[in-house]
């Protein structure tokens, strides 16, 4: 039996952050089929393992705990597996970076596709995306990160903050290649860290599987079409 | 000197969750004027105390820590002041409830005003809002919460989860009174908990100050006008 069960849609996107952290923790997980994920989501809250609106949902089979919400799941796993700083302020900074990543994903998908991108909207948004990159870069620089070495919060080994960098900035600029020059220019230390994380065997295996299963698809749906057209 | 400085806009809204938790912790805080909040937000990330896109920003003067992002700030304060469960899974459930609250606020403001409500959109949204209420109700029921007594996660004293209930469901249905029957019907234990929390002296003082300063204004701006018109 796997250590965890992760209910999420087939597309990597938000679920990839959780899989990436599970892989870093050397944990195993099952992924139920999409119709099971949908059925669980549509259940009455009183029959759900954790009352929730939408996936991801993680079930920890060791402790029999069920959780929803990407930030809560990542925070739980990172603390359990020693993949975030022991210092409370640095742990909270990790939570802040997860919330930042969540905001960037909402913004760049126009809140999960609530609207569609136009070239003008995209052009107006680019400086804000660059500022998000600068925010991550500056946090890295304050912890000694350089394009060639280090981890985001100055640890000796990668943790949740580095998983966020890989799955936000690394994956985004690998799927939307035209954004990579902006990352290289605005956040060179983040670009380097994302590349080093992507080369780790357990992360490379996940990224290769995502590429094999989904090609260049990133957030998916009409919103990805409008994003690519606007860019 | 105050224990904390909280940079946020004058309107209570998201900032009220943090003030409410600070008050529960019996901590003091300064609130810089709106032009200072704006100036800090517009600073280069390399001169910000914590690189961030937008308030809230909290500075802890005891530890000289600066944090942004409401969920990270609430999680930090709750852990520091013993206002969330010591059990890691229950602490993570608290983080999940904060993320749920953040989602509800985004949804009901159409992502901070990215679109405007129409009566038809609002009518279509109501069942989803009721489901959010049921999700909180069911979590309370699993921890022994009743309309008359208890706290959301079964603790002997209020914590962050209860602050979330007060500031999400209590304040929302107090400012948008026509939603209170939906809460009473769908989530009676949550309604009762919100009322009991609102009666605590430190919370009553905050709520009275918000009412004196801002009247019935809730999320503010054009989006509040469109919400009230659609309802």
Explain this structure.
The structure is a homodimer of 231-residue chains. The first copy, chain A, is an alpha+beta fold and 231 residues long. The first copy, chain A, has 2 domains: 4-80, Glutaredoxin (3-Layer(aba) Sandwich), CATH 3.40.30.10; 88-230, Glutathione S-transferase Yfyf (Class Pi), Chain A, domain 2 (Up-down Bundle), CATH 1.20.1050.10. The first copy, chain A, has helices at residues 13-24, 34-42, 70-80, 88-108, 110-113, 119-142, 160-175, 180-186, 188-199, 201-214, 221-230, and strands spanning 4-7, 29-30, 57-60, 65-68. A 4-stranded mixed sheet of chain A has the order 2-1-3-4. In chain A, helix 1 (13-24) links the parallel strand 1 and strand 2 (29-30). In chain A, helix 7 crosses helix 9 (188-199). Chain A starts with a strand and ends with a helix. The model of chain A has no long low-confidence stretch (mean pLDDT 96). Chains A and B meet through strand 4, helix 3, helix 4 and helix 6 of A and strand 4, helix 3, helix 4 and helix 6 of B.
